[in-house]
Amino acid sequence: MAEFDIQKLANKLKKNYGSLKVAADEVETIEFISTGNKALDLSLEGGINLENLVELSGFNSSGKTTLMQLMLADMQKKYNTVGIWLDRENAYYNNRSEFLGIDNSKVIKFKPTDIPIIPDATQALIETLSNIPKDVYKFIGIDSIAAFDDTAKIDRSDMGRKAKDIHRMFRRVLPYIDKKTLFVFSNQRTWKPGVLFGPNTTVTGGEAGKYFTNYRIELNNGKDIKDDSLGGEITGNYIKAKVIKTRSGPAMRSITFQHFFKKGIPYLSGYIRLLVDRNVLQPKNKTEFKAFKNEIILYKDKKLKESNVEQILKDYPELNFDTYPEYNVEEEEKEDV
Fold first, then answer.
1. Which of 158, 162, 192, 295 has the highest count of CB atoms within 10 angstroms of its CB?
2. In the chain, what are the domain boundaries?
3. DSSP-derived secondary structure for 258-308
């Protein structure tokens, strides 16, 4: 029997399916965008890969918009990207976005009145993307998917209409997400009252996103950050980010970083805590360190402060990992002894 020629079949099918290829002939290009935080980037195996759909879910003040804007800023810096921002929450301020590094002269912004319901947003995205050249890098941001008007109020005969519209939007827009495009949307989390077993939170923007996304990051608010020099004023909070889903590496990784309402998210915030979690560094007092009451860590018989992370990495360059740190079993064995 003659050997089956798969390449010949691929060439035949290509007449009807233009992008069809034998998998081995596919040249994969991996271009990562930074989330704006080193610890989170390492947890994601390098950051966010282009040609993907990303969900950021969290409660109020959990840094969703800030992370989205930091991603756009990094993508603009690397690829001269055009931003398409659907500002359903009316939360996009030029001064803030410029402070985070965004070039607003390259951002198309849709206000809430322009896109009141999901079908309007779908049409706006398709029309915009269709008019941007293929060789231009594009960042799509929806802030947030939960803030669209409920179309079910217009037609009560179909109370599931909004959910269907969200599914339809993803299905229609996904074909436009090519290797030069990134699609990021935020989703509001809220409590489910009366829950005794199982998850007690849910997303108000529906569950459609998790079926279409390549990345899902859940952001949970932690302890408030108070500035004693300002009379104990709350200037931010700690955020625990959990990688629920990723196509570029293992999921269910968690990191904790600082989120300042004014300054944003420091790039190296949470990095020392990641090294502690991976047993690379040891805190002087584990309980107090975990509760953010003591920032002293021990390394090479030296007492170091978590807040001096830049100096620590300068003095001990071996602690500056480029990939997610392997768990240090040797240190654990020392503790057991």
1. 162
2. 34-151+158-216, 270-337
3. EEETTTB--TTTTHHHHHHHTTSSEESSHHHHHTTS--EEEETTEEEEGGG
- The answer on pLDDT for 336 being more than 50 is no
Q: Residue 81 above 90 pLDDT? A: yes
Phi, psi of 227 (to 5 degrees): -105, 105
pLDDT of residue 72: 98
The string of DSSP letters for 57-74 reads EE-TTSSHHHHHHHHHHH
Between 3.10.20.30, 3.90.1150.10, 6.10.250.3280, 3.40.50.300, what CATH number should domain 34-151+158-216 receive?
3.40.50.300
Answer whether the bond into residue 62 is a cis peptide, omega within 30°.
no
**Tokens in use for 290?**
């975990």
Helix %, strand %, coil % of the chain (to 5):
35, 25, 40
Please compute the mean of the pLDDT values over residues 123-131 and round it to a whole number.
Answer: 97
- The type of residue at 30 is I
Enumerate long-range contacts of 288-292, CB under 8 Å, 24 or more apart. 291/223, 292/223, 292/238
Please state whether the peptide bond connecting residue 144 to the residue before it is cis, i.e. omega within 30 degrees of 0: yes
> What pLDDT is recorded for position 155?
54
Instruction: Extract the tokens encoding 300.
Output: 């090479």
- CA pair distance 320, 210, nearest whole angstrom: 33
Asked if residues 277 and 271 have their Cβ atoms less than 8 Å apart, the reply is no
Cβ atoms within 10 A of the Cβ of 325, count?
Answer: 15
45 φψ region: left (φ > 0), alpha (ψ -120 to 50), beta (else): left
Strand 296-299 and strand 302-305: pairing? antiparallel
The token duo for 156 is 């009560």
With 70 as the cut, is the pLDDT of residue 300 above it?
yes
pLDDT, one tens digit per residue, over 222-279 is 999 999 999 999 999 999 999 999 987 899 999 999 999 999 999 999 999 999 999 9
Calpha distance 116→122 (Å, rounded): 11
Position 287, amino acid:
T
With residue 190 as reference, give the H or E element that holds it: strand 181-191
